[in-house]
Design goal:
- The structure is a single chain.
- The chain has 6 helices and 5 strands, in the order αββααααβββα.
- The termini are far apart.
- It has a 5-stranded antiparallel beta sheet, sandwiched between helices.
- It is an alpha+beta fold and about 170 residues long.
Amino acid sequence: AFLAYSERSRRLEGDLQSRMREIEAQKRFTETIVDSLPLGLYVIDRDYRITVWNRKRETGMQGISREEAIGRTIFEILHRQPAALLRREFDEVFATGRMQQFQMESKSSGEVRTYRLSKIPMRGESQTVTHIITIGEDITDWVEARERVSQTEKLAAVGRLAAGIMHEINNP
């Protein structure tokens, strides 16, 4: 009986270790996905503590390592906005459950860059907002392309107007 118990115990221990390896592999896979995104991403909990900080955040505007950021409050890490404003933004998402999205400009890299920031509510099983995912995307090239298109459209409109005026002058 003792041998059967011992054998069953070893089998359970082996199953447990195998399952723990699977969980760890899945965790590494998920981290790799988050780190591969071409955007800065972090997640905070209801205590404003950072629970996820992707590698793009390390090389981006802040240059703060994941190890330095995880577990600390967002107010200890981010200083570009007043803490009160940042807290209000997060509190609104926690309270309303609605995503926030806005643009901001930064000169931290030496040149003016435009970023789209999105604060996305993350809900638990009870549908209560438990975390907020913040994504920062550099949209400078897109904004500049949109401005070039707008300028081209304005020039085309001026050209059409001038052609119409010339036509009226030539054909009274």
